[in-house]
Amino acid sequence: MIGWRRVTVTPVAVVLAAGALSACGARTLAKPPTAVQSLHLRATTGSMGDDFVFVEPVEAGVRIRAVRVENANECPSLVVQAVERIVPATTVQALAGTPVCSMTEARVEAAHRRAPYRGGDLVDFIGSVEALIAECGGEDRGFTRISPPLVDDKVLHRRTPEVAALWDLLPRLQHVALDSRAFDPFAGASPAVQAQREALGTSLVPALLQGRYGPYLRRALADYTGPPAERDAVVPEVLERGTLPLAHYVRPVMPQIALSARVFGTVRLRLFVDRASGTVRNVEVLDGPPLLARAATTAATAWRFTPGALAADEIVVSIRFERRC
After folding, report:
1. Phi, psi (5° rounding) for residue 303?
2. Which of 221, 238, 245, 310 is the most exposed place for a label (fewest CB within 10 A)?
3. Which of 257, 34, 11 has its CA nearest to residue 140?
4. What is the pTM of this model?
5. Strand partners, 65
6. Which residues of the chain does CATH 3.30.2420.10 include?
7. Is 209 helix (H, G, I), strand (E, B) or coil?
């Protein structure tokens, strides 16, 4: 016969017993997720170049640097822009707002496969690359998203919002750095602001080359010393400019539609001029690409010749639209 004896159970004993019971189902207690220490984000598209966002702790809080590397008006010459902002009294993890360091490459890839894009062709996104390097516990953890295959972001947000949040980080933090809600926060800057961004971008190039994406940027930026002095892909030229007695000259502007369509060439115009006043009364297009003719006519109409300097009421001029790069 088993004998029974009274046992007094203290509150501490109850807690220990509960811990022991829970331990039966798990060998070790779950560790809190590692907080991300720094973020290094990159997005590459054919239309806007390369965008980078670097999020790192500093003494005053967290520094966000948004950098864009792009061609100067479709020319091979590059322009580097940068904006920097210090967010005080916060952490990189707080700004990330998602458990980046809890993610695994396999989990992210599986989420992408479960959210295939089944709509029409999205040509603008073909060939795009998104990359994320997170510093977790002193080690780098990297994730990449390459299109194709295309991922349906709506499905991804619905099924695995924590994975979708990874690819929201760059645009969201880019908007924080530039304090803008525009679709492209770098667009629409005044010349003065543009110059400030380019000056900061130039100063940051050595750091970019030493950073996580240094090997990727080295070929493009190894000899970068600043934005090119001349950025226009096409500077229209009036072939007779040196012999024309012009008192007021307006330079023709290359139409963006012609530049996008890669239409170049020479437009020949006949100008009908009031010799007494020097004003251009009418312009006739003799030949040349139609996409360029209107730009040439608009500029020539605004010219004014020195009164009495022309020998005839009609003159023929040629305006060349030629790609410089």
Report:
1. -70, 155
2. 245
3. 34
4. 0.69
5. 54, 84
6. 237-321
7. helix
